[in-house]
């Protein structure tokens, strides 16, 4: 009986029989990428899937890892950055998006992308290495990490997810503020609030150049063509509440704000 050896977490195990080795593969104890060796292989360790003598059903070996469709896993890794961009479009155009809606959107995106990635892994012939996608609904990085470990791949997509999160945090904090809206900003959009806060200290009647803590009670007074008129209350740094009106005017591809006291 031929003796076989196999590797696991950097260790060498065996000897075991061919049938025992195949049994370990079928039970999931080892996978198609596990390195195995027997005397007939000389000095070379081979992947389980590459050894013809270990395939007793005549099925072809799994595709090489490099051939697995990686589109879905890379898209999943960039969801935080993509999500920030979509949030920016919605909040700058139409005002704030509720937290429950954001949470559900991220969970749905993570779950769908992970399910598609799991399907791609299974299609490559690696059913045992496929990672269930359910955990990605809440813990996308855990899915990415476990998936890469099972496939014995480097954690490049995990690093991409971390970079995507860091970018979205800095972007949300104001590191970058491009206008990503789809139309003229609404009165209560994040862009409009930011513009009011920036302009208010410099309006002529604000002689003390008082800054703004918050902008509340925002409402749309009128909208005609490319001109929108808004009203709001400003809480100043001096803890005084001041009524203001402001207009948003579209001129070609730019938006101009005019703020005045009521």
Describe it for me?
The structure is a single chain. This protein is α+β, with helices and mostly antiparallel strands. It has three domains: 4-54, Dna Ligase, domain 1; 65-172; 190-261. It is built from seven helices and eight strands, in the order ββαββααααααββββ. The chain has helices at residues 18-27, 71-77, 79-94, 99-123, 140-150, 156-172, 190-199; strands spanning 4-8, 11-16, 35-37, 46-47, 212-224, 227-236, 241-251, 254-261. A four-stranded antiparallel sheet has the order 2-1-3-4. Strands 5-6-7-8 form a four-stranded antiparallel sheet, covered by helices on one side. α2 (71-77) packs antiparallel against α4 and α5 (140-150) runs antiparallel to α6. The longest helix has 25 residues, at 99-123. The termini are far apart.
| Biggest sheet record | 4 strands, antiparallel
Order of helices and strands: EEHEEHHHHHHEEEE
Cα shape: rod-shaped
Strand tally, please?
A: 8
Rg, nearest Å: 29 Å
Order of the strands making up the biggest sheet: 2-1-3-4
Note the gap between the termini: 95 Å
Low-confidence stretches: none
What is the number of domains? 3
Helix content: 25-40%
What is the typical, i.e. mean, pLDDT?
85
Number of helices: 7
Structural class, from helix and strand content? alpha+beta
Strand content: 15-25%
């Amino acid at each position: 009986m031929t003796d076989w050896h196999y590797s696991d977490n950097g260790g060498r195990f065996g000897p075991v029989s061919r049938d025992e080795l195949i049994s370990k593969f079928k039970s999931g104890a080892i996978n198609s990428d596990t390195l195995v060796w027997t005397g007939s292989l000389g000095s070379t360790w081979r992947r389980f899937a590459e050894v013809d003598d270990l395939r007793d059903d005549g099925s072809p070996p799994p595709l090489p890892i490099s051939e697995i469709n990686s589109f879905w896993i890379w898209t999943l890794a960039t969801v935080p950055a993509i999500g920030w961009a979509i949030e920016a479009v919605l909040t700058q155009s139409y005002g704030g998006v509720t937290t429950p809606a954001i949470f559900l959107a991220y969970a749905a995106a993570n779950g769908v992308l992970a399910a598609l990635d799991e399907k791609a892994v299974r299609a490559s012939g690696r059913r045992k290495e496929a990672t269930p996608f359910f955990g990605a609904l809440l813990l996308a990085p855990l899915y990415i990490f476990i998936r890469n470990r099972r496939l014995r791949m480097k954690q490049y997509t995990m690093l991409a997810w971390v970079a995507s999160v860091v970018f979205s945090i800095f972007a949300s904090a104001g590191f970058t503020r491009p206008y990503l809206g789809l139309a003229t900003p609404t009165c209560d959009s994040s862009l409009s609030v930011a513009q009011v806060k920036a302009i208010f200290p410099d309006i002529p009647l604000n002689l003390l150049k008082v800054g703004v803590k918050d902008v509340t009670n925002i409402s749309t007074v009128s909208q005609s063509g490319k001109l929108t008129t808004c009203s709001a209350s400003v809480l100043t740094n001096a803890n005084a509440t001041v009524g203001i009106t402001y207009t948003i005017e579209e001129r070609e591809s730019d938006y101009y704000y005019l703020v005045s006291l009521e």
